[in-house]
Amino acid sequence: MKVEAARDKFMTNLEVYEYISEVRERNKADMEHRGSEHLETVLIELQSYLRDRPTGNQESPQTQKNVEAFIRSVHELGIHLEKAEYLQLVNTAPNSRPVLYNLIEDIEQRLEETQMEQITNLCKQYLGFEPMPEMPDEE
What we know:
This protein has 139 residues and is an all-alpha fold.
């Protein structure tokens, strides 16, 4: 198989979530030409997965406006990150420094402690948070 055109754009979880929601709505409207049952299963599973991430958090959902505000705020602080690092931050919405260390390459050499704290605070402010899993009651 030959790749005709390479894709050069990555998508945030938010963009994927919005796209699959749109596809599912379109499929519901056109039940006659619905397509594969397997596709519908994949869409349902993917949507369910993303709903458990910062993207679909019902208490504090991400929006395109908030993602743009987050990126703008980081730029205004004079912090320079790679596109892939922004993507990871948006998709993960880290709320602690240890998570931040996994997402930003050479963070100790590139950022000061205060800048790391500022990024974490901006993530909390604009990107929501990953819902905590429900723990079973111990009796």
